[in-house]
């Protein structure tokens, strides 16, 4: 709307549409009428509305003649050349949203608890549609971890991620890539937040094991890459732990055997790796040792000697070491919260292994329920008993105490605790036998009640995923 100059007369003369001589301080008319003279000599502008056509020759006359074919062609050309708004960069938006989630420093909601490679994910976006979609689903669903409010956008992103993953798994070029492996892990996490049982695979471990075996056999991934090694180590531990109860899981030993094809390598900040320095020196959390324990539980009776050796050897040393790291005042005082939370998870894993080995020995090794040459579980200072039943009670008590202490890190940093609580619950249920005396039964039932309470507490962290369980 262009502006055009108008009269500089005073307001009184302009209002009456009289010519103003613009004398100062009063114009002649205002002086004669004895009225205030305001605005004399001021420049004013009048703005007129005007519509500009792209081409004046296209303007129709008042006779409203229909446009000719030439006019239509010119109008189409003009409309085609009008610049449109540039589309949003989806990859950039995904990276921005994920980085925003990573910037949460509260250990209770710190995504890096799932693995040190999370900080590298924004750089990997744009290479694999399954990884992009899974990162998007994780970022969109992240607010539900704190609010427990589930929106249609979360489930839409989750469903799209599942679709992209299925497509990637069906493509030979992407099925065994480290990005697709990482996408599986992210979707498993997302399912734990908002999904329901059966959304993905009947067994995550079986599917991941198949992918790991295929990736190792394909020989098209450089497992010396830091990101690839960290993803592989994390998934290997998840699968190995699940293999204790799911014997359909079969992993190729080449995955952790020394050599160029081994994908179990030390990582920058190992969470569960084959680096002893990265796991507080806990021997049982080395991937080769976990693999050995997994092979033992497939045939407990045939491997009872190996189980006994592990139970009275590295397991007890690891229990004592982790107990010290978590109870020593000087060590705890100087330990960052995120490191303390990870140590609790490591201790819980060792307790789980101890409960499993204790049960195997109590069932299949009754002729040798004590070992006079080995220290007892938990060692003397830790309050461990001398026989398997007392040791089982000690291990269950430690799980209960650990779960109570770790509750301050709920939900994410303590998300592994339900697995340890379930192991303690299973042990308490299986310890029941007809010859149980009243004192033993009372102690077992009191522990079972507390374990059930803790299980309810932790399941409340992810109500959507645990509904109906």
From TrEMBL:
GO molecular function, one term: zinc ion binding
Zn(2)-C6 fungal-type domain: residues covered: 9-37
SMART domains: GAL4
Keywords: Nucleus
A Pfam family the protein falls into: Zn_clus
InterPro entries per UniProt: Osmoadaptation_assoc, Zn2-C6_fun-type_DNA-bd_sf, Zn2Cys6_DnaBD
Source organism, top-level taxon: Eukaryota
Protein name from the UniProt record: Zn(2)-C6 fungal-type domain-containing protein
Keyword Nucleus: yes
């Amino acid at each position: 709307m262009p502006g055009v100059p108008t009269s500089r007369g005073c307001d009184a003369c302009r209002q009456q549409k009289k010519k103003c001589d613009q004398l100062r301080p009063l114009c002649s008319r205002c002086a004669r009428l004895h009225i205030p003279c305001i605005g004399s000599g001021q420049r004013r502008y009048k703005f007129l509305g005007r519509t500009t056509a792209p081409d004046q020759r296209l303007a129709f006359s008042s006779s409203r003649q229909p446009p000719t074919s030439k006019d239509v062609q010119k109008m189409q050309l003009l409309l085609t050349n009008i610049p449109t708004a540039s589309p949003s960069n989806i990859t950039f938006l995904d990276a921005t949203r994920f980085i925003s989630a990573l910037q949460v420093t509260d250990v209770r909601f710190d995504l890096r608890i799932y693995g040190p490679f999370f900080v590298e994910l924004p750089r990997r976006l744009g290479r694999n549609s399954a990884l992009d979609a899974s990162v998007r689903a994780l970022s969109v669903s992240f607010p539900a971890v704190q609010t427990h409010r589930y929106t249609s956008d979360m489930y839409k992103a989750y469903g799209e991620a599942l679709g992209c993953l299925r497509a990637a798994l069906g493509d030979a070029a992407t099925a065994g890539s480290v990005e697709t492996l990482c996408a599986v892990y992210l979707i498993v996490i997302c399912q734990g937040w908002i999904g329901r049982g059966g959304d993905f695979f009947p067994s995550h471990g079986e599917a991941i094991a198949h992918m790991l075996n295929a990736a190792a056999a394909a020989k098209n991934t450089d497992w010396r890459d830091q990101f690839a090694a960290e993803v592989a180590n994390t998934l290997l531990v998840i699968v190995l732990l699940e293999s204790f109860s799911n014997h359909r899981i079969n992993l190729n030993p080449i995955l952790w055997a020394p050599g160029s094809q081994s994908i179990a390598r030390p990582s920058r900040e190992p969470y569960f790796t084959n680096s002893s320095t990265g796991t507080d020196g806990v021997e049982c959390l080395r991937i080769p040792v976990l693999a050995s324990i997994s092979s033992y539980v497939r045939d407990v009776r045939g491997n009872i000697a190996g189980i006994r050796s592990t139970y009275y050897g590295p397991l007890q040393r690891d229990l004592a070491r982790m107990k010290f790291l978590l109870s020593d005042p000087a060590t705890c005082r100087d330990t960052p919260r995120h490191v303390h939370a990870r140590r609790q998870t490591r201790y819980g894993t060792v307790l789980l292994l101890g409960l499993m080995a204790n049960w195997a020995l109590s069932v299949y090794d009754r002729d040798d329920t004590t070992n006079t040459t080995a220290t007892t579980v938990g060692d003397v200072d830790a309050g461990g008993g001398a026989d398997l039943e007392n040791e089982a009670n000690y291990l269950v008590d430690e799980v209960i105490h650990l779960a109570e202490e770790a509750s301050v890190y709920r939900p994410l940093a303590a998300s592994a605790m339900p697995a340890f609580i379930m192991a303690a619950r299973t042990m308490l249920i299986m310890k029941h036998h007809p010859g149980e005396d009243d004192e033993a039964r009372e102690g077992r039932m009191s522990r079972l009640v507390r374990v059930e309470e803790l299980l309810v507490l932790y399941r409340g962290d992810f109500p959507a995923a645990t509904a109906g369980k």
